[in-house]
């Protein structure tokens, strides 16, 4: 392989830049030309493609977001869109691409590979919801952003003796809520993967109040439902004051943690090795701190599972 491309797609995540840097530098190290495809699959279809040099990725390892920009493309879900993309790649003489993103991005990479164009996926999403890898790039940074917010909210919750409902990202995955709730000492964690009863949430708060607890933190994954509604239900059942904090997109920004930078560097470089070895339709990941690769289709056919033993632990520790 003499020319490869790299793109970032879907929701951005801190560490994507470190992954782009690793792809570019690893490829150039092996005398392979690298092309940046801007704005994800949108830019692929319209030919927003530019050759990258060693210096193109200088000074980005510590920056959040993605220098290649990102997008969610409806058109690329169609066969016509995918063929347009392949046409552009052939025009530039690109023989394989590295796709950095989440499950939607993997679907695009799967389609391109099925049409005969080699792709390798690198898991970049704060949601940590790609089957086959213990961690995705950006999760650790997002988690630390949430912890910082919880710690600050805890201070004011204590001063005012209030119950805070903190909504974090994750439409279908509860990893951010679960890990942040456990690390932030939340009294209750609500995630889409585990059923809950509002009566239980309320009676847990009640028990806490009876033994003199003056404030509480409840962490809710956005996929569970509205934090505002949960707050209202608590206020109408108990005589306590609640406040809601929806953390939103601050969770997607910021300088990546050392963990995310190292993970991104390892995974980005491994993706290039796979393309060099003629492997296609593969995704890279990390399991028990070892780099692994598996078929993208296999990953997409599996359901991401949260570690429910951690959920049980959080319940026991916040008794
Ligand atoms: O997939 C990452 C993610 O941040 C999810 O946690 C969230 O539900 C979604 O993206 C938000 O997407 P957007 O930025 O397009 O509103």
UniProtKB/TrEMBL annotation:
Single GO biological process annotation from the record: fructose 6-phosphate metabolic process
Kindly list the positions annotated as binding ATP.
11, 72-73, 102-105
Report the cofactors.
Answer: Mg(2+)
Q: Where does ADP bind?
A: 21-25, 154, 185-187, 211, 213-215
SUPFAM superfamilies named in the record = Phosphofructokinase
**Can you state which reaction this protein catalyses?**
beta-D-fructose 6-phosphate + ATP = beta-D-fructose 1,6-bisphosphate + ADP + H(+)
Q: Write down what this protein is called.
A: ATP-dependent 6-phosphofructokinase
Q: Which gene encodes it?
A: pfkA
């Amino acid at each position: 392989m003499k020319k490869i491309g790299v793109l970032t797609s879907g929701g951005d995540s801190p560490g994507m830049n470190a992954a782009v840097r690793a792809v570019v530098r690893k490829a150039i190290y092996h005398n392979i030309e690298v092309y940046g495809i801007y704005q994800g699959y949108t830019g692929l279809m319209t030919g927003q493609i530019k050759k990258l040099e060693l210096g193109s990725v200088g000074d980005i390892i510590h920056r959040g977001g993605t220098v290649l920009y990102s997008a969610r493309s409806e058109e690329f879900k169609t066969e016509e869109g995918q063929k347009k993309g392949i046409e552009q790649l052939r025009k530039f003489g690109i023989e394989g691409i590295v796709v950095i993103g989440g499950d939607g991005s993997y679907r695009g990479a799967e389609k391109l590979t099925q049409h005969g164009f080699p792709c390798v996926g690198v898991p970049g999403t704060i949601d940590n919801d790609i089957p086959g890898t213990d961690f995705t790039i950006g999760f650790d940074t997002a988690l630390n952003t949430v912890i910082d917010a919880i710690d600050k909210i805890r201070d004011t919750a204590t001063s005012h003796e209030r119950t805070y409902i903190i909504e974090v990202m994750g439409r279908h995955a509860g990893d951010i809520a679960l890990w942040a709730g456990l690390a932030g000492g939340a009294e209750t964690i609500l995630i889409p993967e585990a059923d809950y009863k509002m009566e239980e949430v309320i009676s847990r708060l009640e028990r806490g109040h009876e033994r003199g607890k003056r404030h509480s933190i409840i962490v809710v994954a956005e996929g569970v439902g509205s934090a505002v509604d949960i707050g209202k239900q608590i206020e109408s059942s108990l005589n306590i004051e609640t406040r809601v904090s929806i953390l939103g997109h601050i969770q997607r920004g910021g300088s990546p943690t050392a963990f995310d930078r190292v993970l991104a560097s390892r995974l980005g470089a491994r993706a290039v090795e796979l393309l060099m070895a003629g492997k296609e339709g593969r995704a890279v990941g990390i399991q028990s701190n070892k780099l692994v690769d598996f078929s993208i289709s296999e990953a997409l056919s599996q359901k991401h599972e949260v570690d429910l033993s951690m959920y049980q632990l959080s319940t026991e520790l916040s008794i």
